# Entry
Amino acid sequence: MTEAKDIIIRAENVKKLYRLGDEEVWALKGISLEVCRGEFISIMGPSGSGKSTFFNQIGALDIPTEGRVFFEGQSIFDSTESEQAWIRCNKIGYIFQTFNLINVMSALQNVMLPIIFQGTSKDEATKRASDILERVGLGERMHHKPFELSGGQQQRCAIARALANTPDVILADEPTGNLDTKTGNEIIELLRSLNKEKGVTVICSTHDHKMLASSDRVCWICDGRIDKIASGEQFRIEEMDKDTLGR
Ligand SMILES: Nc1ncnc2c1ncn2[C@@H]1O[C@H](COP(=O)(O)OP(=O)(O)OP(=O)(O)O)[C@@H](O)[C@H]1O
Ligand SMILES: [Mg+2]
# Structure
């Protein structure tokens, strides 16, 4: 059967069980979701509802206890370790809430790392990493280490690293969670332009209404299940009302 829509990631009844000693936690209780290529989708849900766990499954960082995740039609569960590593390295860019940069390396070296892992020469990696850092507005600061950068600059660096290998999908787990409103808005603009101009699929978990307003679809997760999925339209209207009322 041919699929009419260009589905890049498909989660099929994904369940995840964590065991802590005698205690069992079903963090995901059967999530099915199709994400189309070029889509901007936000995941919302209370703390502990399973957002990060779900990201780990669809990002090929973990394997579900039950169910399957398909990346471009290929089952991650049924792929070899090296196929999974290839997807992680070449297809997906990860942005974490706490940046996860390597502190002893400069911004430039942090961004070069995944490019080098891909097997690219050091000269080429330096050029590509510098270009990306320029693009995210960090050209002037690329030789600084993370602790010498502001929170927003560190998140820009993390985004640059996520973009290093021109991924098809960016998975961003609360990318503005640790940022002030102004810096957060800049990061949202950056993700939105990558999505609109470069066609990168963006999947992010967020509580930020500006991010939700940028989304094609918003998916609510509650207690390991999808509660509802709606268009981002209602948040766009809300944001417009705020602008009109000057709030
Ligand atoms: N490695 C783990 N071992 C055991 N339990 C875990 C593990 N990771 C998460 N959990 C549990 O699974 C559930 C879902 O956690 P998860 O981190 O996915 O939530 P979340 O929606 O990302 O929350 P937050 O908004 O606080 O980041 C929680 O009950 C959590 O305690
Ligand atoms: Mg989380």
Remarks:
- The CA atoms of residues 122 and 155 lie 24 Å apart.
- The mean pLDDT is 92.
